[in-house]
Write a structure and sequence with these properties.
Length: 287
């Protein structure tokens, strides 16, 4: 089995809410020493062929990727899929349905922001959108920064876009079971993304991990741009407790916004099983 020393299995391109193209991301990953890469756009596999071709051009091994929005316990949880067949009909249809409500949600967000005194947010956000089916809160955040309402996108989320704030519109995404099944029946592995980011009670978190496992989920992100070192330690323990493999990914979106660059994370704790070892048959080799 090939040994990979610097896999980065989570990032976003202009096909969802990143600011770089798949080709520029691939070059950046390679320059930072990534030897196994996955592009994981939100609810969308439209960038996979470009990403795989760009990885090959850079001499980097590739796994297909996606990050699916899931509604669980009254919040949004993200499930990453890796190593699936990106042309699988059930997966493609499921993602299409998951994306479906984004346009209407965006219009409601703009209406609410208008009531809060910020006009033109829908058109403003659209200006930042690379894929019309994938308008996201991130695009609104970029518009509010451009409009001078906030100094950076973190401030926008804090003041306008999270639950309880004026621009937040509750939305129903995919179910946990559907997301895991779409990925696994397409030959991939499902991964709980950045678990420390969800504000779940201990009981809800236990339910998330056990239901995920029952549905056939195989891994959890332990080392991610969204986790502190202490959180990585605590989710390493969760991986062991639930018999899950571990993944590693920066969640890079943009040079101006992301504090963790591609390929710059610490390694996975040595006692964990890397998710890419489960997917050796699904890796598109470097050469
Ligand atoms: P959406 O899928 O439209 O709800 O947008 C979710 C995206 O918003 C995430 O994938 C992140 O890229 C971004 N995001 C969520 N929370 C924050 C935050 N607190 N600060 C910056 N970006 C965030
Ligand atoms: Mn995002
Ligand atoms: Mn996420
Ligand atoms: Mn992400």
């Amino acid at each position: 089995m090939t040994t990979y020393t610097n896999p980065d299995l989570h990032c976003h391109s202009v096909v969802s809410d990143g600011t770089l193209t798949p080709e520029v991301l691939a070059a950046r990953a390679r320059a930072n020493g990534v030897d196994l890469w996955a592009l994981t756009d939100h609810d969308e596999v439209g960038g996979q062929q470009r990403a795989a071709a760009a990885a090959q051009a850079q001499g980097m091994a590739y796994l297909t990727g996606v990050e699916i929005s899931v509604t669980f316990a009254h919040t949004t949880v993200h499930i990453v899929g890796l190593g699936f067949d990106a042309s699988n009909a059930a997966l493609v249809l499921g993602l299409e349905r998951t994306r479906g409500g984004r346009g209407e949600r965006a219009r409601e967000m703009a209406d609410q922001l208008a009531k809060a005194g910020i006009a033109g947010a829908y058109e403003g956000a659209l200006h930042f959108v690379g894929n019309p089916e994938l308008i996201s809160r991130t695009h609104f955040a970029r518009f509010l920064v451009e409009a001078g309402v906030c100094k950076d996108t973190n401030e926008v989320f804090r003041k306008y876009l999270i639950e309880g704030k004026p621009g937040f519109v509750p939305h129903r995404w995919a179910s946990l079971g559907d997301a895991v099944h779409w990925i696994t029946q397409a030959g991939g592995a499902a991964v709980i993304a950045h678990p420390a980011r969800y504000r779940l009670s201990a009981n809800e978190e236990f339910a998330l991990f056990s239901e995920f496992k029952q549905h056939g989920g195989q891994a959890v992100e332990v080392v991610t741009g969204s986790h502190s070192a202490a959180e990585a330690v605590s989710y390493a323990a969760m991986a062991q407790e639930f018999g899950l493999a571990a993944s590693r990914g920066s969640d890079f979106h943009s040079p101006d916004e992301s504090h963790t660059d591609l390929g710059t994370l610490p390694p996975l704790p040595a006692h964990l099983q890397p998710v890419w070892d489960l997917l050796s048959e699904r890796i598109q080799p470097a050469h």
